Amino acid sequence: MALLRWRSGGTGRYSGYPVHEGAAATLLEQLPLQAIFTALAGVPATDPAWSGAVRYLLAWRRKDIVLLRRIPESAWSVLAQVVHDEADGTWADRYETWRSRSE
Question: What angle, 0 to 180 degrees and rounded to 10, lies between the N-to-C axes of helices 73-85 and 48-57?
């Protein structure tokens, strides 16, 4: 949870790329994807950890579509809620793109 909250510390697209986001992503990559969703189970969508999950999962590259297909349906639902609450509309656009490709 701490890594996801750390990853959520970024700001909008015009702020540049905060170094701490990369550090958190590097550490998150060491975890199995299922461990991330297990940690998020039961966590309200308003928790910053979900914002971190959005920034981590939806920043993946095209080659990672296989990983996106492993995202549980219940997590997609919460991700949808979170991206539409984000101030930066880029995340909502990315959600729509990745969601359609993962089906």
Answer: 100
Q: What is the pLDDT of residues 17-69, one digit of tens each?
A: 667 677 888 899 899 888 999 999 999 999 999 988 888 888 776 667 777 78
User: What are the start-end ranges of the H helices in the chain?
Assistant: 2-7, 19-28, 33-40, 48-57, 65-68, 73-85, 90-102
Q: Which residues contact 36 (CB under 8 A, 6 or more apart)?
A: 4, 28, 53, 56
Q: Could you tell me which of 8, 10, 70, 5 has the C-alpha nearest to residue 39? A: 5
Encoded tokens for 32: 């199995």
Integer Cα distance of 81 and 65 in angstroms:
21
